[in-house]
Design brief:
By secondary structure, the protein is mainly α. Helices cover 77% and strands 0% of the residues. It contains 3 helices and no strands. Helix 2 packs antiparallel against helix 3. The longest helix has 30 residues.
C-alpha cells in the first residue's frame, strides 16, 4: 500500500512538472513549425533533394527542442541536464 501511494505521488509530481514546462516548449515549437512547414512544402513541390535537407533540419530542431525542454526542467530542480551534463540557465 505505501509503495503504491508513494508511486502515485511521484507520478503526480512528474505530471505536474511536465504540465508546467509544456508552456516552455511553446517558443521552441515555433522553430519546429517553421522547419516542418519547409519540409512539407519541399515535398509537395516534388523537390526531393530539398526535402531530404529539410528533413535533417527538422530532426535537428526537434532534438534541440527536446534538449532545451529537458534542460529547463532539470535547471528548475537544480540538476544537470541528462543530455549535456550541464546545468542550464533558465530564460528570463
Amino acid at each position: 500500500e505505501t509503495e503504491e501511494l508513494s508511486m502515485k505521488k511521484i507520478l503526480a509530481l512528474l505530471i505536474a512538472v511536465v504540465m508546467v514546462f509544456s508552456v516552455a516548449a511553446i517558443p521552441a515549437s515555433a522553430a519546429l513549425s517553421d522547419s516542418a512547414q519547409a519540409l512539407t512544402d519541399s515535398f509537395n513541390a516534388g523537390d526531393y533533394e530539398a526535402t531530404l535537407n529539410n528533413l535533417f533540419i527538422f530532426v535537428k530542431d526537434f532534438i534541440t527542442a527536446i534538449h532545451d525542454l529537458v534542460g529547463n526542467i532539470m535547471a528548475v530542480l537544480g540538476e544537470e541536464c541528462a543530455f549535456c551534463e550541464q546545468i542550464h540557465v533558465l530564460p528570463a
